[in-house]
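call fold(seq) -> tokens
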Amino acid sequence: MALYAIGDLHLSFTVHKPMDIFGPEWKNHTEKIEKNWKKRIKKTDTVVVTGDHSWGRNLSECMEDLEFIMRLPGRKILLRGNHDMFWDAKKTEKLNEQFEGKLSFLQNNYYTYSEYALVGTKGYAYEGKDSPEHFQKLVKREAERLRVSFEMAKKDGYRNYIMFLHYPPTSIGEEESIFTEIAEEYKVEQVIYSHCHGKDRYQDSFIGMVNQVEYQLVSGDYLKFKPVKILD
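ret:
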């Protein structure tokens, strides 16, 4: 039994969205995901998929992509990404009811692995597109959702946490943010995130041990589409 993570599968079985236009590493990436997942993941393992599951614009267009994930081995916990148009804040409970026993959706709730609470939210980072007011509004919203997860787990007696985000915990050039502050406040062991693509973004990413918190980037292309082990 082990805990793994990977993000940004960017599946498109229904919607035509060829990913190899973003670089040679994306060529036949769906086949790479399936091959590497089946090679590494056992039925007893848990995999947190950190967002951007599908290019579909609604649940109907995403269904074949979600079914692909469901067929893969292990327990699958899905985090919301910025491209996951099928999922909004009001749909988490409905999605968990619809996919019960097949997929679990992480937002405004938490899941467990051994003695750990798995908490998470989409997060947000500045990418040069937002006004300061809009950016702060989205960051505040996501931070509040993250605290909901932590406080639910804390109330239930959990004190060991792994924190998942889709966006990186800081904007480019930042050394800290509300998300790193929350991670330190709750004494999180690891912060796992994705969203970043390409060599330039890898180099700019928040990776390694900072203030006793380990940060890991798990974007699919960064991992060469091989789920990475987080915990034994």
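The domain at 3-231 is CATH 3.60.21.10 (Purple Acid Phosphatase; chain A, domain 2).
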